[in-house]
Amino acid sequence: MNPPHLIVGLGNPGPEYENTRHNAGFWFVDRLADELRIALAPQAKFFGKAGRAGELWLLQPGTFMNRSGQAVAALANFYKISPAEILVIHDELDLPPGGIRLKQGGGNGGHNGLKDIQAKLGTPDFWRLRLGIGHPRTLNLAQQVVDFVLHPPRKEELPDIEHAIARCLLAWPRIAAGDFAGAQQQLHGKAV
């Protein structure tokens, strides 16, 4: 397996969205950037905030979620990064808060960010790191999905999501080496 050359955290720009569930991908990339000492800065030609260490790029699209593919395709095409070398981190309704799944390809599950990335890349064959935020129905909430993802996690959910991000950071050396199978084993096992 090729190591990833582009790590994309999905979210919505602006302070009003900063702490919302939909920005879980941004949260991960912020933490990874801190850990790797990569400064993220606005880069107009990539439609977002980006930073680089060697051949590794980190990206937070500056577009709204449903236009995420514009930023991903701009950077990937400019540096000739193949879809198999892209890892997209995003919030996942179909996993409980704190759930994690790492996989390549597949559908978009109605996630507008993934849908746009697939359209702009012309393929679903990029890697995804899915961070569980739960679903309003399984959490016994009356909220509509769009309202749910655009609100902060409840205080009892946030520690689980933060713990999942920490577990993903522990798996980063395997991901960075292209050992996706080893990272899957580490992440999909029982939480510690």
From TrEMBL:
Active site: H22
Record SUPFAM superfamilies: Peptidyl-tRNA hydrolase-like (SSF53178)
Reaction equations catalysed: an N-acyl-L-alpha-aminoacyl-tRNA + H2O = an N-acyl-L-amino acid + a tRNA + H(+)
The keyword Thylakoid is assigned to this record: no
Gene3D superfamilies tied to this protein: Peptidyl-tRNA hydrolase
PROSITE patterns according to UniProt: PEPT_TRNA_HYDROL_1 (PS01195), PEPT_TRNA_HYDROL_2 (PS01196)
Principal location class: cytoplasm
Record keywords, A-Z: Cytoplasm, Hydrolase, RNA-binding, tRNA-binding
Site feature: Discriminates between blocked and unblocked aminoacyl-tRNA: N12
EC number: 3.1.1.29
Subcellular location: Cytoplasm
Lineage: superkingdom: Bacteria
Site (Stabilizes the basic form of H active site to accept a proton): D91
GO CC annotation terms, alphabetical: cytoplasm
UniProt GO MF annotations: peptidyl-tRNA hydrolase activity; tRNA binding
Binding site for tRNA: Y17, F64, N66, N112
GO-annotated biological processes: protein quality control for misfolded or incompletely synthesized proteins; rescue of stalled ribosome
Protein family per UniProt: Belongs to the PTH family.
NCBIfam families: pth
Xref: HAMAP family: Pept_tRNA_hydro_bact
Protein name (database record): Peptidyl-tRNA hydrolase
